[in-house]
Amino acid sequence: MEMNSKFPLNWHYRCEGNNNIIFTDDNSLYILRVPKVSKHHHRNKEQFRPPSTCQQDDPNDCVLKENDFMEQLVYPILKGVSVHHRFHLIKISDDLRTMLGRSLCERSRMADTGFGIVMPNYCIAPLLSHMRPIPATSACQPPVICVELRPKSCYLPSVSGNKCCYFCMTRLYAHKKSGKPQTDYCPFDLYSGSPARIKRALRQLIAFPQRYFSLSVNDRLVFSRGSCRGERDENEQEFAKIIGKTLDGKGADAFLNMVCSALTLPVCTRNHGSHPTQPHCRVPDHPTTAECDVRRGDYGRSILGLMHSIQRKRNVPLDEVLKINQEIRRSNEILTEQTMNICEKKILKDFQLARMFNCCSLIISFRRKISESSENQRRSSSSEDFEVSDGEGSSYNVSIALIDLYKDDSPEKVVRFCRREQQVVDHYRNSSV
Question: Is residue 265 within 8 Å of residue 388, measured between CB atoms?
Answer without folding.
Answer: yes
